Amino acid sequence: MRIWLLSSGSSGNAAIVEAAGARVLIDAGLGPKVAAARMRMLGGELLPRGVDAIVVTHHHGDHIMHLEPLLRALGAPVFLHQGVSAKRARARHDVRPYVAGSSFAVGPLVVETVRVPHDAPQIAVSVAGAGLRFGVVTDLGHVPPGLAPSSAGATRRWWRRTTAPT
Ligand SMILES: [Zn+2]
Question: Rounded to an integer, what distance in angstroms lies between the CA atom of residue 26 and that of residue 127?
Fold first, then answer.
């Protein structure tokens, strides 16, 4: 499993997880050119390979503002839960709706989502493949009790805690 943490913070969030030959982009807070440049700095290549799916945690700008350019550049569907409106993207692109808290497959990868508290409906995401699992949780004011069992199984964990909505 390879992980590229391209950006974290109120200026934009994006991470790519690759395992078993498949890739998932978690959050769309960077445009394709910046995301490609950051990935190259970290020793990877974003294009032309692209990703196999995009997952957006919640509908705040630093997580979704570059979704449509990314959809065009990366040639991938986006998985959106019901708490993300994204009407333009839903009308124009390959959007795979799912219920927040459920799991779905992206090729050989299993993406698990868990509802977590925020001032917009939000999910934590973990991606499992090749015997490993990586989880991302953003914008938490506190760690809710229900999150620990899911994240405890992750082989790599990354937490960013904020007290202010971002
Ligand atoms: Zn937020």
Answer: 10
